[in-house]
Specification:
The complex is a heterodimer of chains A (169) and B (410). Chain A is mainly alpha-helical and 169 residues long. Chain A is 75% helix and 0% strand. In chain A, helix 2 packs antiparallel against helix 3. Chain A starts with a helix and ends in a 7-residue tail after the last helix. The relative contact order of chain A is 0.07. By secondary structure, chain B is mostly helical. Chain B is globular and about 60 Å long. Classes of the chains: A mainly alpha (169), B mainly alpha (410). At the A-B interface, helix 1, helix 2 and helix 3 of A face helix 5, helix 6 and helix 7 of B.
């Protein structure tokens, strides 16, 4: 085993542990603000995992969009929410929720175990942005544009909902 | 070339042939990291002194004069003072988040220095995604600000943090869009986009070497949008509503003192320094300066440009008053974003009409259209309003003059 492979394995283990621990923190933390901060940690660790897979472009986008924008909007929403510091108190639905969560977990674990994961040999980092751009703007251009139209509709809808009604034109 | 710092260090490390490759790789990385930290700390002391001195000159004061020759030792005294201060954590603060916040604000900015080129080979790592990496990492610094404002358990800190975040999330859109033009042009380099990644910061400077001109000549719209948007990301005047002293005491770091406050300060000035380096890389030719880079170490050229742009930042701070938050957001969405999109469309059209070509005609066409668009935009934004007639009121004296006596004549 070469030194580079050892370093890659160490990086993977550290990032995976951080990601899983962060995800656990999101669940366990009683304070919802802390949960959101743990979520940021998960996003960053997942970006690191993308880098170990030579997907550098996706990693940068993950940091830019998820850690930089989505997480911040989440924190913003929490701050604007009344009594957000109290977090989630225990509810009557703890039992049913546990049951559903256990079902979902079983399905996910079964899928992960039963799938034959295709393993490719490690490739040296090369610019991936060109191939992603070709895929997005040539082959998958229609879904891409439809997604942007859907986002635009959501944006306009949010503005319509948030605007106060005024009599003055 | 011996002037190039990266080559010098690289050849020195290659002398250590008795070490395995990976140890040499580690050593070179460590040297780069230590170099960047040194640059950041020394740069902090120098920029701090320079800003206070320059502001004083703009306001016709002498500024720092007491400690050392013309106050040159003042930054060191300040650093010592701040280190010796008591570390106060408010009683009802969220203590863990409170103490992690300065780190979360500083670390992303330090990380972004990894891709700033100080010379053809003086760079910590020439990533394939260089410029995107720098923008992405630096944008997460806002989470530290958020943590500080929320954990302080202080209304002013919270309002300051919310203003900052609203501003930074908004201005991120034109910031990223403004760099797209540069990346589109870098895609015209020979070998791009397969062998040379158009996102690499070294490739951006190489493009300017091929053009024999800094990029602001063909990307003035991009420069304008990038400069203003990055200024807003830095939260410097005129965009410093998040620490508007008369409304918010000190904004998100109201409750911070001592060393933790110093780290926020360091983060702010490091971000400013990084912005100056990135600005000179993207639009002003990086280490290139009309052939001077062959006689002077390229590191000095980059740092000299960065220092010049830092002075421009101080100049802006001394000149412009603070904006209001609605003006700020309106300016972002109604002026900067359309301008950035226009820049993308113009550059994209030129690249689409003359693909794989860095010839004179397309570049001149691009420059002409961009400059015309820039002046049109500025005219529409500033001068296009109907001119109001200025009614001159003759000055009236409130106090009658003292006889025929003129000042200084007794």
């Amino acid at each position: 085993m070469e030194v580079g492979d050892v370093a890659l394995t160490i990086a993977f283990v550290v990032l995976a542990v951080v990601a899983v621990a962060g995800a656990g923190g999101v669940l366990v933390a009683r304070n919802i603000f802390h949960s959101a901060l743990f979520l940021v940690l998960v996003f960053v660790a997942v970006a690191g995992l993308y880098i170990t897979l030579s997907a550098d472009f996706i990693a940068a986008i993950q940091v830019l969009v998820y850690a930089g924008a989505v997480a911040v909007l989440l924190l913003f929403a929490i701050m604007l929410t009344h009594d957000s510091v109290q977090g989630n108190p225990w509810g009557r639905f703890a039992g049913p929720a546990f049951f559903v969560a256990a079902l979902v977990a079983t399905v996910v674990i079964l899928v992960v175990v039963q799938t034959v994961w295709p393993a490719v040999p490690a490739v040296p980092s090369e610019p991936t942005s060109t191939r992603i751009a070709n895929a997005l703007f040539n082959h998958w251009v229609l879904p891409f544009e439809v997604a942007s139209v859907v986002l635009l509709a959501a944006l306009v809808g949010a503005i319509v909902l948030a605007r106060e009604e005024t009599d003055v034109p | 070339m011996w002037l190039e710092l990266g080559n010098l260090i690289g050849s020195l490390i290659n002398q250590l042939t008795f070490l395995p490759d990976w140890v040499r790789f580690l050593i070179s990385g460590l040297i780069g990291i230590v170099g960047i930290l040194l640059l950041v700390v020394v740069g902090q002391l120098i920029t701090l002194y320079w800003e206070r001195k320059l502001i004083a000159q703009f306001q016709v004061r002498t500024g720092l004069m007491r400690v050392g020759w013309h106050g040159t030792l003042q930054p060191i005294a300040d650093a010592l003072k701040v280190l010796l201060k008591e570390d106060i954590v408010p009683n009802r603060a969220d203590k863990v988040v409170f103490s992690l916040a300065p780190v979360a604000a500083l670390v992303p900015i330090l990380l972004s220095f990894a891709v700033y080129p100080f010379g053809p080979s003086t760079i910590l790592r020439d990533l394939n995604i260089g410029i995107l990496y720098a923008l992405a990492i630096a944008s997460t610094s806002v989470i530290g600000v958020f943590m500080a404002g929320w954990s302080s358990n202080n209304k002013f800190a919270l309002i300051g943090a919310m203003r900052t975040v609203a501003q930074m999330v908004g201005y991120e859109v034109p910031l990223v869009l403004s760099v797209v033009g540069v990346i589109l042009l870098t895609g015209l380099l020979p070998g791009a986009p397969v062998q040379v990644s158009p996102l690499s910061t070294i490739a951006i400077v190489n493009l300017q070497a091929q053009l024999h001109a800094p990029l602001f000549v063909v990307q003035p719209l991009g420069l304008l949008v990038y400069f203003i948007a990055q200024l807003a990301e830095l939260n410097r005047t005129p965009f410093d509503i998040m620490e508007a002293e008369n409304e918010l005491t000190a904004g998100y770091h109201t409750e911070y003192s001592g060393f933790r406050f110093a780290i926020f300060y360091l983060a702010e000035y490091t971000a400013a320094l990084g912005f100056c380096i990135l600005l000179s890389t993207l639009f002003f030719g990086g280490w290139l300066l009309f052939g001077l880079e062959n006689f002077v170490p390229p590191v000095l050229v980059v740092l000299g440009k960065a220092f010049f742009f830092f002075s421009v930042l101080v100049w802006i701070r001394a000149t412009l008053p603070r904006l209001r938050i609605d003006q700020l957001m309106g300016f972002c969405w109604k002026f900067l974003v359309p301008l950035a999109l226009a820049n993308v469309i113009i550059t994209g059209l030129v690249v689409a009409i003359w693909p794989n070509d860095l010839a004179v005609i397309p570049m001149v066409a691009l420059a002409v259209v961009e400059w015309a668009a820039l002046f049109a935009a500025l005219w529409l934004a500033g001068g296009a309003r109907p001119r109001q007639k200025v009614v001159r009121v003759p000055p009236r004296r409130l106090v009658s003059p003292l006889g025929d006596m003129r000042p200084g004549e007794i």
